[in-house]
Amino acid sequence: MYKISEFAEITGLSKETLRYYAEVKLLEPAYINPNNNYRYYDDGSYFLAMILVKLRRFGFTIQEMITVMEDESFANLEQLLIKKRKKIQIQIKDLWLQVDEIGEFLASGKEEYE
Questions:
Q1: Rounded CA gap, 1 and 52, in Å?
Q2: Most buried residue among 53, 78, 98, 103 by CB atoms closer than 10 A?
Q3: Cα-trace Rg, the chain
């Protein structure tokens, strides 16, 4: 079992994030000591935390992460990841269009002053 500070260090999640994840029932401690309310996490918690770290890195919202974690079999995770990838690809395409528009705008401004 890991105390919250140890668990935060090995997962890269802050203690505040871990407390928030517990509050929204995303990642609850494996055990809370009733005498002092210390939170403890186990190896299973570590596995789930690493999934959450990846999902956050992939741009999942808290609600999307809750949806993934509620499906304990992770049966729908692949489909969610495919949808997220497609959404990111569209965002990238849109950003490249914006880059092109900025370039065109800059070029048109230079032409006016030449």
A1: 19
A2: 53
A3: 21
SS3 36: coil
Q: Is the dihedral of CA 65, 7, 50, 70 positive or negative?
A: negative
Phi and psi (nearest 5°) for 32? -120, 120
Tokens of 7: 């668990």
| Other residues' Cβ atoms within 10 Å of the Cβ of residue 4 | 18
HSE, side-chain direction, 13 A CA sphere, residue 113: 4
* β-sheet bridge partners, residue 32: 39
Q: At what angle do helices 62-70 and 77-113 cross, to 10 degrees?
A: 160
- DSSP characters over 58-108: TT--HHHHHHHHHSTT-TTHHHHHHHHHHHHHHHHHHHHHHHHHHHHHHHH
